Amino acid sequence: MNINVIELQTAFATVINTLTSTRVIWSDQNSNTPNGDYIALKLTSFGLNTGLDFYSKPNDSEIMQTQGDRVVTLSLTCTSHNAMQILLQLVDKLQSPNNIELLDDNKIVYINIESDLLDITTNINNSFETRAFVGLTFRISKNYSSNGEEEMKVVRVITLEGELDGKLVPEEFVIDTVRQ
What is the helix (H) or strand (E) element at residue 164, kind and residue range? Predict the structure, then answer.
């Protein structure tokens, strides 16, 4: 399953921004960090083995759709004088049944905390910048995949021509590969 990372990043940024009202940026961008409070997001891992993928019954065009779940780890680094509080409240909101619709609308499912909430305050130019970090695990589905690459065509007829071991092979073999 090919994951459309841009759509996935947009979904995560939408959810985090909605739940925290804190500016959201993506880590490792080639630009300066913003002034004021912000949360830097980073997709740190994609778990590819989370079960078997689903293959649909072929449609009239002989195409089978596939779908599979993937686990994604999202790292969040908050820079704010209330960094720990912002991330603690975010985790509480992700666990709240009141926000299931927001997550569902963005086609992601919150699973758990991958790494504990850490205070990573650092000294920059003789002053402290208050930061906190947490890693969160989410599950995504085919919603972020390229449709064309996930289609599988059904083989209904195989034609062989020529000679095999000196024996003539009939012009056409019809093989029914799909039982209905």
Answer: strand 163-164
